[in-house]
Amino acid sequence: MKIFVRTASVAALGLAAAGCATAPPQALTPSDVPAVFTEPSPAGAPVWPTAEWWKGFGSDEMNGIVDSAQKDNLDLAQAAARVMEAEANQEIAGSSLFPSVDLSAGASRTGSKATGKWHGSNSFGASLDASYQLDFWGLERDNLRAATENLKSARFAQETVALTVLTDTADTYFDVLALRQRVSIAMANIDAADRILKITEAKVTNGVSSRLDLAQQQAQVAGQEAQVPALNEQEREARYTLAVLIAHTPEDFDVRADNLDAIVSPKVGAGMPSELLRRRPDVAQAEADLAAAHADVDAARAAFFPNISLTASGGVASTALSALFHSTSLGYSIGASLLQTIFDGGKLEGESAYARARQEELVANYRETVLNAFADVESALGQVASLSEQEKYKTEEVDAAAEAFRISEIQYREGVADLLAVLQAQQTLFTAQDQLVQIKLARLEADIGLYRALGGGWSEDIGDVTQAIPANPAKPEDAKAPM
Question: Which listed CATH number (1.25.40.10, 1.20.1600.10, 3.10.20.310, 1.10.150.390) goes with 17-99+136-305+345-478?
Answer without folding.
Answer: 1.20.1600.10
